[in-house]
Specification:
Structural class of chain B: alpha+beta
Number of domains of chain B: 2
Strand content of chain B: 15-25%
Distance between the termini of chain A: 64 Å
Radius of gyration of chain A: 23 Å
Strand content of chain A: 15-25%
GO molecular function (chain A): metal ion binding
CATH class of the largest domain in chain A: Alpha Beta
CATH architecture of the largest domain in chain A: 2-Layer Sandwich
Low-confidence stretches of chain B: none
Order of helices and strands of chain B: EEEHHEEHEEHHHEHEEHHEEHHHHHE
Shape of chain B: globular
Organism (chain A): Longibaculum muris
Radius of gyration of chain B: 23 Å
Helix content of chain A: 40-55%
Number of domains of chain A: 2
Pfam families (chain A): Peptidase_M16, Peptidase_M16_C
Oligomer: heterodimer
Number of helices of chain B: 14
CATH topology of the largest domain in chain B: Cytochrome Bc1 Complex, Chain A, domain 1
InterPro entries (chain A): Metalloenz_LuxS/M16, MPP/UQCRC_Complex, Pept_M16_N, Peptidase_M16_C
Protein name (chain A): Putative Zn-dependent peptidase
Number of strands of chain A: 16
Low-confidence stretches of chain A: none
Structural class of chain A: alpha+beta
CATH superfamily of the largest domain in chain B: Metalloenzyme, LuxS/M16 peptidase-like
Distance between the termini of chain B: 65 Å
Number of helices of chain A: 15
Chain lengths: 430, 424
């Protein structure tokens, strides 16, 4: 077992790779009642075409399958894993993102049993034709819930606008039609390919003794047999530089219009430390441009075409990256034009050193605060982990950034790769 | 160590712990929930943290918070039964995690003091520009809330169920009352709050008794000994079940049910009801989730919640329009089953364990620790977490059946699609 000390944060992290390839990280938290375990696989909604384990040909699977599998994992031959956790006094959940699926428990008691149950239920699959069919009704209601959510529609529409081929444009849950196509056989293929221990990571944080916990996990893993590890082959996405469409207007039964301007970034970095540096610098630049403390926020607020829902976000995942800027607005066209103008003239946006240092301090403070919460630590750890980044390095990296790093990012802004998504109230009779 | 201090005009509660990297301070202002003041009070939460005389704009105040390592400053307003509570919340990094000693505690206390005693006010009125901006912001916030069909349908349930009663008064105010407010009126109301609201301040973090002197130095309110009522048991004013169906252009229908339960936070039966709710619909192991979702695949979410301060229970589910009657039947069947005594001992044990687990978890989150303590403080309930758990564990099957029998459906609010047919 390896021990890593982080001075600034006063935290110690323990690591070991199991014989079967599973990576295990433990973070004891003194004084906490809670223990939180997060078991993640690098399999998300964008993994739709790949070579299944033991086969040679690429397979295209129905959209939404990673999410469907997440729902079905809880079913075990002798009952439901949620009930098992409940009997231990613990709670459990799971979530699927574009590039990951993660299973978790949260408990204040029976920590060892919970860790074993988490490993056991995810490392085994029990599907029947019948239980697969039954899940479709539940998932369709989940899809229906998002259909009526204007924030989600606007957020997701603004991503769909950007991509012609990249599977990030498909909804995480798929559609009612693709969900119908999902069957037991394909689910099992996905499971065996992506839930191999070498493609997974376990993070446990909270009220634990690292030595004892690591031994428990080691012994649990030694009892199980897995196929020989193989390098997963995913299809390379062939994504043109241009956006898919410039504008999408959705009419919904709502009162308040919404707007998101998105910008596709085609310069994709692969080296983890470069990626991290870009992300943290971009967050500073977006704060300087758009945060409550910016000149522009104040001007636009006073002119009335933004309110406090206005925000700007940068996303950088496995092989795609984009910006999203917007919020609720009574004048979506005006806000769109203003954002376009700003991006066009980004080179003339001058940043002074004092402002740079101010937002740098702000971001450092916010990051320190993340380490208060076992859940936030675990979720953030898992998100960065599969990108090759350790979250404990974030603060030092942030502190080392210079104004130059921020200024350089202006070259990524390009009007050519902008797109707009608007939600508008339905007019009568529509 | 003594943790509760009577200060000038407020009660100071210390929750010392070394496990967090930040300090959290929550100032809570309580007054009766009234139709006439709910909108003023909500708007005040927007204007209060928009500026001070020293930082007379959102930009300047936000920049100051940035400089202090992203110190947070926020407000919200919520009801606690018959009361309406403003929560002014600030959190900031403990100096030991920063490269230099920044004295963030003193800086934030000075800021809190300025918000109340040196606000951006001229001629006995809040700055007109800020007030107008915040009026617009509040109006837009209320409109956006309506676009969230889940919270909209829940608000409508409260509106109909609590017509002409406290339950029917929205904690976030009335959209059509916002225009009547100006800077002068709001400032007058603010002065009244400073004088008359019941005030509690909570501090969570690495603190000891010496912090009491710091508070003494920075924060003093006018003396007051108000003690406003909060938790109560809702009593219906209509003899029959009220069924309201509203149609909108939506995909998923939202079913919301409100129940009378003859019990609330301060009743003896509070513990039994808490266990009952956990068995019925409070968790994903509960009956409703098992039957409506897992066995019948009718929904993605279904749950019950016990609103202990209004003394009611709510059930909500997102379903297809055509399943309205079927879902209603299943929910009522499950309630009836518990009333008839069909409860396994195992289910009771699981429910108790889940409740204990979620209570223990609150001690890992500053906001939850404060919320839990506050509920007890405003109802004068003297009870530790261990005593609370003890009381839950002592709830018997008979106690659960007894409170289950008190549960009566009062109001149904069903938000559904345009093509819903009531007679199907």
């Amino acid at each position: 077992m390896k021990t890593i000390n982080y001075q600034t944060l006063q935290e110690t992290l323990y690591f070991e790779e199991m014989d079967n390839g599973l990576k295990v990280y433990l973070l004891p938290k003194k004084g906490f009642s809670k223990t939180y375990g997060l078991f993640s696989t690098c399999f998300g909604s964008i993994d739709t075409t790949f070579v299944p384990i033991g086969e040679n040909e690429m397979l295209k699977v129905p959209d939404g399958i990673a999410h469907f599998l997440e729902h079905k994992m809880f079913e075990m031959e002798d009952g439901d894993a949620s009930d098992g956790f409940a009997r231990l006094g613990a709670s459990t959940n799971a979530f699927t993102s574009s590039s990951r699926t993660a299973y978790l428990f949260s408990t204040t008691t029976h920590e060892d049993e919970c860790i074993e149950l988490l490993l056991d239920f995810v490392q085994d699959i029990y599907l029947t034709e019948e239980n697969v069919e039954k899940e479709k009704g539940i998932i369709n209601q989940e899809i229906g819930m998002y259909d009526d959510d204007p924030d989600w529609r606007c957020y997701f529409g603004s991503i769909q606008n950007l991509y012609q081929n990249h599977p990030v444009k498909i909804d995480i849950a798929g559609t009612v039609d693709t969900v119908r196509e999902i069957d037991k056989d394909t689910l099992e293929k996905c499971y065996h390919t992506f839930y191999h221990p070498s493609n997974m990571m376990l993070f446990v944080v909270g009220n634990i003794d690292p030595q004892k916990t690591m031994t428990l996990i080691r012994e649990n893993q030694a009892k199980k047999h897995f196929e020989k590890e193989n390098q997963i082959q995913r299809e390379n996405v062939d994504e043109p530089q241009d956006v898919d469409q410039d504008e999408l207007i959705l009419n919904m039964d709502v009162v308040m219009p919404k707007l998101i301007v998105s910008m596709k970034i085609n310069d994709i970095l692969t080296e983890p430390s470069q990626k991290l540096k870009r992300e943290l610098s971009m967050n500073l630049l977006l704060d300087l441009l758009f945060a409550k403390s910016s000149k522009l926020y104040e001007d636009w607020m006073r002119q009335g075409f933004i309110n406090d829902s206005f925000s700007a976000n940068f996303t950088q995942e496995r092989n795609y990256s984009f910006l999203q800027i917007g919020g609720d607005t009574q004048e979506p066209e005006k806000l769109r034009d203003k954002i376009y103008e700003l991006i066009e003239s980004i080179d003339s946006f001058e940043i002074d050193e004092a402002d740079f240092q101010r937002v740098q301090k702000k971001n450092i403070g916010i990051l320190i605060g993340v380490f208060n919460s076992p859940e936030s630590i675990a979720n953030m750890f898992s998100r960065y982990y599969f990108e090759g980044i350790m979250i404990f390095d974030l603060i030092d990296c942030l502190a080392s950034l210079s104004l130059d790093d921020v200024n350089q990012l202006k070259s990524l802004f390009d009007k050519k790769y902008l797109s707009t998504c608007m939600i508008k109230p339905k007019e009568n009779g529509q | 160590m003594k943790t509760v201090y009577q200060m000038q005009g407020y009660t100071l509660h210390l929750i010392p712990t070394k496990k967090f990297k930040t300090m959290t301070i929550s100032l809570r202002l309580q007054s009766p929930l009234l139709k006439e003041t709910t909108t003023l009070r909500t708007l005040l939460t927007f204007v209060l943290i928009a500026a001070t005389k020293k930082y007379p704009s959102t930009k300047l105040l936000a920049s100051y918070l940035d400089e202090n390592y992203g110190a947070r400053l926020s407000t919200n307003v919520a009801t606690k039964g018959e009361s309406q509570v403003i929560n002014l919340y600030t959190s900031f990094v403990n100096d030991v995690y920063l490269p230099h000693q920044e004295h963030l505690l003193e800086k934030q206390l000075q800021l809190l003091s300025d918000l109340f005693f040196d606000p951006f006010v001229e001629n006995d009125a809040f700055d007109q520009t800020i007030v107008e901006l915040k009026k617009k912001e509040l109006k837009e916030r209320l409109q956006v809330n309506k676009d969230d069909k889940f919270s909209y349908s829940l608000d409508k349930l409260f509106e109909h169920m609590g017509r002409n009663q406290t339950l029917g008064i929205p904690s976030t105010g009335y959209e059509d009352k916002i225009d009547e407010i100006d800077g002068k009126m709001l400032y007058q109301y603010f002065l009244k709050c400073i004088k008359e609201d019941e005030k509690h301040i909570y501090v969570v973090g690495d603190v000891d008794e010496t912090i009491v002197d710091v508070f003494q130095q920075y924060l003093k309110f006018p003396e007051n000994h108000q003690d406003y009522p909060s938790a109560y048991t809702f009593k219906s004013q209509h003899p029959d079940v009220l069924e309201i169906i509203e149609k909108q252009d939506i995909t998923q229908s939202k079913l919301n049910l409100g129940y009378q339960i003859d019990c609330d936070f301060i009743s003896e039966q509070h513990y039994a009801f808490t266990v009952f709710n956990a068995i019925f619909g409070g968790f994903s192991q509960s009956r409703l989730f098992k039957v409506v979702r897992e066995e019948n695949s009718l929904c993605y979410y279904v749950s019950s919640s016990y609103d202990a301060f209004n003394g009611i229970m709510i059930v909500n589910a997102g379903i297809e329009a055509k399943d309205y009657h079927k879902t209603m039947d299943l929910i009522q069947q499950e309630l009836k089953a518990i009333q008839d005594g069909q409860i396994e001992k195992r289910d009771i044990d699981v429910a108790k364990m889940m409740l204990e687990n979620s209570l223990r978890k609150t001690s890992d989150e500053a906001g939850s620790m404060i919320a839990l303590t506050y509920n007890r403080d405003i109802t004068h309930k003297v009870e530790s977490n261990d005593e609370y758990i003890e009381k839950l564990l002592n709830v018997s099957q008979e106690d659960i059946i007894k409170v289950a029998k008190q549960v009566r459906l009062d109001t149904i609010f069903f938000l559904t699609g345009k093509d819903f047919d009531e007679n199907n």
